[in-house]
Amino acid sequence: MTAAKRAFITGVTGQDGSYLAEFLLQQGYHVIGMVRRTSTVNFERIKHFQDQITLASADLLDEVSLISVLREYRPDEVYNLAAQSFVQTSWGQPVFTGDVTALGVTRLLDAIRVVDPDMRFYQASSSEMFGKVREVPQSENTPFYPRSPYGVAKVYGHWITVNYRESYHLHASSGILFNHESERRGLEFVTRKITHAVARIKLGLDHELRLGNLDARRDWGYAPDYVRAMWLMLQQDEPGDYVVATGETHSVREFAQFAFEHVGLDYRDYVVQDERFMRPAEVDLLVGDRQRAQEVLGWQPTVSFADLVRIMVDADIRSLQPSKTYVSA
Ligand code: NAP
Ligand code: GDD
User: Fold this and answer.
1) Quick check: bond before 137 cis, omega within 30?
2) Is residue 298 part of a domain?
3) Closest Cα partner for 175 from 129, 106, 210?
4) 214 in the same domain as 152
5) Which residues contact 172 (CB under 8 A, 6 or more apart)?
6) Could you list the mean pLDDT of each consecutive 10-residue stretch along the chain, which spans 329 residues?
7) How many whole angstroms from 287 Cα to the centroid of ligand 1?
8) Does the residue 329 lie in any domain?
9) CA Rg, the chain, in Å?
10) Is any ligand 1 atom within 6 A of the Cβ of residue 65?
């Protein structure tokens, strides 16, 4: 019998890390999840399978800690999902964002180079790198024009991954993932902010939802679909970069409209525009061309925009009203 493959995930406590860990467990992997020290435990997203994975303590800000855990666990595959990932925060904490989200990638790549350059590497690149878009839709060949300190940091992370691939022949791939959401999404991101508020309003716990730019458009998919694409990239003979997207774009306004409609309400009665949630520089339109991922990886999304909104609203209603059965409109 051959030994189980070993996968190392940074950011395992985040949305994507939790779905990727579950997916890799189903594939028979031994999963090692990297966690950083916190004063209170934040294992909300992984607690239902925590006993099936190994937790390893390290931090993207500390290269020695990365070298130590890679030496100890000797993974076959390393998935770098850890980041300061909230765009709005990146204006308030630009240096910290650069340290974790940009230089953190170099620390991890360098740790791989030193410990075992045969480890395969996945970098969580982002459609935020396209920013003020140079073409529509955006593909692997579209030039980057980031519009936030976060986007700038991700461009650095992307190119250092390409550079280590070319300099040291690492099997290092980048997934340029467009927005992907789920019931595990952080409450500060606009989709979950909306679905959580819709649930609270429907249940009589709140009366309004304050949002920023309603006209921004995103290509929104379902997170469990997207972690499958990450794994597929590391199963290829050759490393590479792939856009992962649905190919559809919708505005924040449409997301709110669908979410309120799902519970029989009109968003115009509850949504209030608030300057506090506007950004110094906005990404107006994202829509991805996933042709390469579809042809080479055989990847395509399975959840539509309308189903994504329904899944998230229903989950928020269940979580706020766990003891009662709710029938949606
Ligand atoms: P998320 O929910 O915000 O999770 C981020 C993870 O990074 C958390 O586990 C966090 O740990 C960890 N982390 C932050 N700083 C760290 C540090 N210094 N050392 C170690 N771990 C650290 O993000 P996500 O939505 O799952 O996204 C995963 C990755 O994909 C991120 O790199 C994000 O930028 C990128 N991405 C996301 C999307 C999307 O739409 N979701 C699209 C494109 C790219 P704590 O729990 O301790 O805070
Ligand atoms: N968060 C938030 N809160 N966004 C709002 C609000 C609000 O109240 N009102 C309008 N928006 C708009 C933002 O201005 C932005 O145009 C859009 O909603 C989406 O914002 P977020 O959900 O915060 O996501 P993001 O697109 O900035 O970033 C996410 O996707 C990137 C991939 O394109 C994050 O997951 C990044 O980590 C990821 O790289």
Assistant:
1) yes
2) no
3) 129
4) no
5) 109, 120, 121, 122, 123, 161, 162, 164, 165, 239
6) 92 98 98 97 97 98 98 98 98 98 99 98 99 98 98 99 98 98 98 98 98 98 99 98 98 99 98 98 98 98 98 98 58
7) 22
8) no
9) 20
10) no
| Cα 170 off chain centre by | 23
Ligand 1, from 85, 108, 188: best to mutate by most atoms within 8 Å of Cβ? 85
Q: Could you list the residue range(s) of the whole structural domain that residue 124 is in?
A: 6-180+220-244
Q: Judge contact between 203 and 321, C-beta under 8 A.
A: yes
Q: Is beta strand 30-35 parallel, antiparallel or unpaired with respect to 6-10?
A: parallel
Does any ligand 2 atom lie closer than 6 A to the CB of residue 213? yes
Distance CA 177, CA 229 (A): 9
pLDDT digits (tens, 9 = 90+) for 110-136: 999 999 999 999 999 999 999 999 999
Rounded Cα–Cα distance for residues 104 and 94 (Å): 14
Same domain, 64 and 80: yes
Q: What is the mean pLDDT of the chain?
A: 97
Residue 93: give its domain's CATH number.
3.40.50.720
What phi and psi values does residue 258 have, to the nearest 5 degrees?
A: -60, -40
